[in-house]
Please model this.
Amino acid sequence: FRLVAPSASRSHAMDGEGNFARLDVVPEERRRDDLCIPAAASAAMLLGLVCCFFLPMGSTFHRPYDVRSNTLASARRAEGCMNPVVSSGSFWTDSPALADQWERELRGWELVQVTDLQRHGDRWLYRHDIVDNVCWPGQLNSSAAKMRAECDFDLDSLWQAFPHEPDPYAFPAPGHCALMQITLSGLRHSRQLGLLLGAEYARGGRHPLRGLASMGCMPGAVSLASDSVEKNERTIQEVYTGLCGWGPTLTEFPASEVLLNRTTTDPGTPFWLRPGVCGGSKLAAYVQEADAALRQSSQWTAEVRRLAEKAAVFLGRPVPDDVADYRPFLSALIDCTVCHACLGLDDAPTGLLNSHGLPDGSGLFGRLDHIETAGVLWPLRYFSSLGEEALLRYARLQHGPYFAALGDRMQAAVDAIRHGNSMHDAPKLFIEVMSDTDISPHLYLLGLKEEAAVRPPWLATLITELWVRGAGASADFAVRVLYNGRVQKPCPGQDGSLCPWASFRSLLARLAPEMSECPAFYGNYEMGSTFRPR
Model:
């Protein structure tokens, strides 16, 4: 094995110990069909997450991050910061007894498709003009030496160049971090998540995925889709690299097929990932109605006002006059607390932290998080209060295209197996990297209200698995949904970990927009199965 010199990589970073951490791709001419992907063949894989690649002599080997240098210590395994799957190093966060029960239920079933809708990795702050980009009086900022180790590297992704712009939180100094950029910890954790996905779904994994386990990450086996933002693009690169043992290439993953453009609905792009695709006057009227109801809700106004007053004490500034600004005001304090405390800047207000110095989900921080997330979900909660049909009329237009695309890909696998057709050329694992405000509504609409009640942590994973038992026309299909390593039960009357495909399909069809009311989706997305909205 030989390491690639820094000059050979298009994008690279140096960790705090001066070691080069490879962030880019194995040159396409060096990719070999006989490369293996991470496997859980031993306890060492599960405990140390050591990835083994079988390369011919003379092939280029890029050293992955040493995941043992994880900057989240064991005491920092707080869900307010990080997906517990990543911070614990275990794909499963259910109790051992439940995990054993779920395993028994899977006997006789084979996994055929996985969709991982996830949040990006650890990042620096968003812009919060509502607090003038000042977290609190006397704040630390990205000029700190700690943040130089986290942020001072080339930001370019495989698909786009990202300039290193000054950090307004560090003004008048430029700071070491750009707004919203992924940190070195975020890159390491993203790679670690990829390793964990490999340990679960790859050859020798706990639940090997048909096709991926036998063929590896051959072209077409994995599908990538990401919001067109640096933190998301770098996350998906690292997750893929951890899973497959090499980075994605532009030949297999061109920007036009991977990156979400939030202003267009071009065919072949993952435009269906964003909310509001259907557009139109009807959806605009629903949005306006929900906004008016928010302003007129005395309960919401009183509750959020009380918490905004508490937030104002920490922020050192008055509460905004407009009730519509309360949520952004709370969001600023939450974002500042998470980024500072979870990245190791020890100046976050102690009244928001637990005994480990992390965001306290059971204290005031937790109450702020719940009410701010309720604001994100307000339109869904408002229309739900008017009845199921009112909720569905709004949800189908605002969020329905995602569920239509998910239903279509799952139904395509079902159709292929029932008709005895090969799935060789179809993707087996779909990785989609979005943000917390994209994931929360999906949790809510799947009936996972408790999980939707708080902001998804960094690298949160909403995983949908399709399982088959038998073959041909008589094959049975079932779905398992996992959120941050825990089995969920989205289907009505579901007792165990598996939901019959017919029930889950009905759930997705119920959320998908009618063809006549969403031409922006159906006119630009080619349905490849018998799935149709209900």
Notes: The chain has 19 helices and ten strands. The two ends are 55 Å apart (CA to CA).
